[in-house]
Specification:
This protein is of the alpha+beta class. About 20% of the residues lie in helices and about 45% in strands.
Length: about 425
């Protein structure tokens, strides 16, 4: 009986010992899986983002924070693309007990960052898009992080972007509008950081009243553009080539947001001459004219409303003041403008820009990607001013919607309203 009791107790001890081993193994596996879900390696996250079509993707981690760097070339709307990237990073796992930062590029040039700072009470499952801080500030060591090795480079990849162009004028009493509609494909490619080469051909589709030259196939924008991010959150863009409005020359733009990022200043200066294409025959003038503008902007985040006031000198030398009030939505930007120059009657009108589908597109290696332009817009000259207040654009994608696409307040509103 005693032996039997000893056998029973021995068996009981063996059973308890086995249960402890199984329990420890289960806890170990659970912790392992949990830690993997909570802090997935950055390399796996990078691979997932590359698989979605993001370019120039990399990551860096030290004892202070983990940083992801990427460029949204997969989604037409930056707010949508950035939201998708955040979802991936959260799903794949944030680093434990340290911040995480996402730096977004445009043509390899850093634009904004999204920063998540965990607290003691945080759990990974509770992290949401609203918890990310969006800012032009990239942190102290962003230069080192951006220079790191990246996957799926955008360099030497060709985009064939088809720009629809619609012009209307009401100058003939017996005709409501004279119309010119073009489809203008442009080859766009970058050979180094911040550089973009644009070579465009204008193909007239419908020409009613715009003259014989406008009805011929001819080159459009032929420009080389270089963008850099300078210290103290200053962006500079230098463009050289032929622009729109029959101008060729050199154009420089600068932009700087203040610490309170609702406020910003911007400046522009250019020296240009006249030109036109008669088919593929290039005719140009040697006289150069100086144009410039300088002003400030206020962004009202509650309504995504942007107000800009500038002092400007136009192509004919007249100097004046221009005010723009634009409201930005996900798929469109719309507003009005007013101008007044000394000795010239006031002018104004409205303008809008609309995003064009498809809203998601992905490259296949180095095969040229053919897409319509990201958006299309019209500026309506309500004062019918034909000679004064003239300017130009240095690139075909220079418009109110693209210029606002990396605004931190606009991105934040897109993340919250998705």
């Amino acid at each position: 009986k005693g032996g039997s009791g000893h056998f029973y107790n021995s068996g009981s001890i063996d059973f308890i010992f086995s249960s402890d081993i199984i329990r420890c193994i289960a806890i170990f596996l659970f912790c392992l899986l949990s830690s993997k879900g909570m802090s997935q390696t950055g390399e796996e996250t990078v691979n997932t983002l590359v698989g979605m079509g993001f370019e120039n993707v990399g990551w860096h981690e030290d004892d202070k924070e983990r940083v992801y760097v990427m460029e949204n070339t997969a989604y037409r709307l930056n707010g949508v693309g950035i939201g998708k990237a955040i979802d991936v990073v959260q799903r794949m796992g944030l680093p434990q007990n340290k911040p995480c930062r996402l730096i977004f590029l445009d043509n390899n040039v850093p634009q904004i960052s999204l920063y998540y700072q965990p607290t003691v009470a945080d759990s990974i499952s509770e992290v949401d898009r609203k918890d990310w801080e969006v800012s032009y500030d990239l942190g102290k060591n962003w230069r080192k992080q951006v220079k790191g090795k990246k996957k799926n480079s955008s360099l030497f990849k060709v985009d064939v972007t088809i720009y629809p162009e619609l012009s209307l004028k009401n100058l003939v009493i017996t005709q409501i509008y004279q119309v010119l509609f073009n489809l203008s494909p442009a080859i766009e490619v970058s050979f180094w950081k911040g550089m973009k080469l644009t070579a465009q051909v204008v193909i007239p589709v419908y020409n009613d009243g715009y003259g014989t030259r406008a009805g011929k196939v001819h080159p459009g924008f032929l420009a080389l553009q270089q963008t850099v991010r300078l210290p103290y959150n200053i962006w500079g863009t230098l463009a050289v080539g032929t622009f729109n409005a029959g101008r060729y020359g050199v154009d420089l733009k600068l932009f700087h947001p203040f610490k309170d990022e609702r406020f910003s200043v911007e400046g522009r200066i250019g020296t240009t001459g006249t030109y036109y294409w008669d088919g593929f025959e290039y005719v140009y003038g040697s006289k150069q004219r100086l144009t410039w503008s300088i002003g400030g902007s206020f962004y009202w985040p509650q309504f995504n409303l942007q107000t800009t006031v500038k002092a400007e000198q136009y192509i004919l030398g007249e100097r004046g003041v221009r005010v723009d009030v634009i409201r930005h939505f996900r798929y469109t930007s719309i507003g009005f403008f007013a101008m007044k120059a000394e000795g010239v009657r006031a002018n104004g009108g409205f303008r809008f820009q609309v995003a064009l589908p498809p809203y998601k597109y992905k490259r296949k290696g180095y095969i040229p990607r053919v897409t319509p332009s990201e958006n299309m817009g019209i500026a309506y000259n309500a004062g019918n001013e034909r000679y004064y207040y003239k300017g130009y654009r240095s690139s075909p994608d220079d418009n109110i919607m693209n210029n606002n696409s990396f605004n931190p307040y606009f991105i934040k509103s897109e993340l919250l309203n998705f």
